[in-house]
Design brief:
single chain, 394 residues, alpha/beta, Aspartate Aminotransferase, domain 1, Aspartate Aminotransferase, domain 2, 2 domains, 3-stranded mixed sheet, 13 strands, globular, binds pyridoxal-5'-phosphate
């Protein structure tokens, strides 16, 4: 007999499966890297956000082990109650210096950094101008704040100007955008947004999750990429992508960081990053400050891959970053494409509605510094084979 309380969940799940929208999660039995063991099968990895190969980098692993030997594993409570380890403070200082800002504060994840920051800055009576394609964690942070949310057209400063002009009743205002949009790989028009924020005296926040460790000098992020130091009020970042670990960052003015230590709810009511996470992130900053070699390789790999895909006749959209969408159109084709890639030994995910609009389904290729020339050539051969087989290219 159906469970009276949870029977509806069974029905919802059955309905997702019928529509082909049920997400099944593949099992990895290897570390992250150029090659993975996925569901028991060796495959070339083009799915993860491990842009620089730091998720399994010996320097990070060593730093994490050494720190655990000294500090143990967990922080054992929130920082305001149990005290904060010097390790966390050191990471925050190093991140601020790396990014060239006054101060930084860490969170458990990029997601919780957004949930902490947005409601701490705006509330009822305030207004947020949010790019329509912003990440789910920004959307949730905006909703939590109870400020009025005005969505502006994706990457469209003119629409933003109009929305600002049309909004007259407010106490405080905040403009929020993703730095790099993860489905298309395009970059926010930050210089224009900055100018608008300046003219109207509006707080400006950018979530640089996919730009941290990728954009800018040696991976210093989108603000460095556009040389806008000191002009963006709040930078959100993550250490869960290029940094290869897990954790969130808020970087910017000292006042903002001080305020988040007082009013950021995930800071006050959720435990800090773990010891190995913090130590590994410190090692990641060391590596990035020592050399831009990994960042350079990431970009040259991505350039090589994109150029050869275009020569083969694939449509790679309008990406400006190592994220390369292979545009396929309808969702079933993208699913079939991804499935055939996997059978041939390439792990790259199909993405369809509702993550991207109808008719814009794609296989998203995440490039990484870990791929060798050989890996890339092998992958390109497989893309060509599957593309011809499915009639995507000639
Ligand atoms: C991935 C992502 C996040 C979440 O980061 P986590 O550290 O994985 O929680 C937040 N914002 C954006 C724009 C992202 O792409």
């Amino acid at each position: 007999m159906a469970d009276l309380k949870t029977g509806w969940i069974d029905q919802e799940i059955a309905s997702l499966k019928e529509q082909g929208l049920f997400t099944s999660i593949r099992t990895l039995s290897s570390p992250q890297g150029a090659w993975l063991v996925v569901d028991g099968k060796r495959a070339l990895n083009f799915s993860s956000n491990n842009y620089l190969g730091l998720a399994n980098h010996p320097r990070l692993v060593e730093a994490a082990s050494a720190a655990m030997g000294r500090y143990g594993v967990g922080p054992a409570a929130v920082r305001t109650i149990a005290g904060t380890m010097d390790l966390h403070l050191e990471l925050e200082k190093r991140l601020a210096a790396f990014k060239g800002v006054e101060a930084a504060i860490t969170f458990q994840s990029g997601f919780s950094a957004n949930l902490a920051t947005i409601p701490a800055l705006v509330g009822q009576g305030d207004v947020i101008f949010s790019d329509e394609l912003n990440h789910a964690s920004i959307i949730d942070g905006c909703r939590l704040s109870r400020a009025k949310i005005m969505r502006f057209g994706h990457g469209n400063p003119n629409d933003l100007r109009q929305q600002i002009a049309a909004t007259t009743e407010y106490r405080r205002r905040l403009i929020i955008t993703d730095g790099v949009f993860s489905m298309d790989g395009d970059i926010a028009p930050l210089p224009a947004l900055c100018e608008i924020a300046d003219v109207h005296n509006i707080l400006l926040m950018v979530d640089d999750a996919h730009g941290e460790g990728v954009l800018g000098k040696g991976g210093r992020g989108i603000v460095d990429h556009f040389n806008l130091h000191g002009k963006v009020d709040i930078e959100i970042g993550t250490m869960s992508k290029a940094f290869g670990v897990v954790g969130g960052i808020v970087a910017g003015k000292q006042a903002v960081v001080d305020w988040l230590r007082q009013r950021g709810r995930p800071f006050l009511f959720s435990s800090a990053m773990t010891v190995p996470d913090v130590a590994a992130c410190l090692a990641a900053v060391d590596l990035l400050e020592e050399s831009s070699e990994l960042v350079d390789r990431l970009w040259s790999n991505a350039e090589y891959f994109k150029q050869h895909m275009n020569e083969l006749g694939f449509d790679t959209g309008h990406t400006e970053t190592p994220i390369v969408p292979v545009m396929l159109g309808e969702a079933p084709l993208a699913q079939q494409f991804s499935k055939r890639l996997f059978e041939e030994g390439v792990f790259a995910m199909a993405i369809g509605f509702p993550t991207v609009p109808y008719g814009k389904a794609r296989v998203r290729v995440m490039n990484s510094a870990t791929h060798s020339q050989d890996d890339l050539d092998q992958a390109l051969g497989i893309f060509a084979k599957v593309g011809r087989e499915l009639g995507v290219i000639q």
